[in-house]
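To make the argument concrete, we let one protein speak, a sequence paired with a row of structure tokens, as a model reads it:
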Amino acid sequence: MESESYNLKTFRKTFASNYADKGIGEGDLADLLGHSTTNTTRIYYKKKNASIIKERLNNVNIRKNC
């Protein structure tokens, strides 16, 4: 059985992913992580933001159909 390895980057990514899931904006997330630009944040957390945007779009479509 393969053991998983954890390091500070693992916890950093978990921290950032959790806040991205909760809708924290890229600018605020970049500040929390110490990134000098949001480009760095966008590279690593793009997938998280995409799922949040998709959920928001679905909510808008549901409201329009009601």
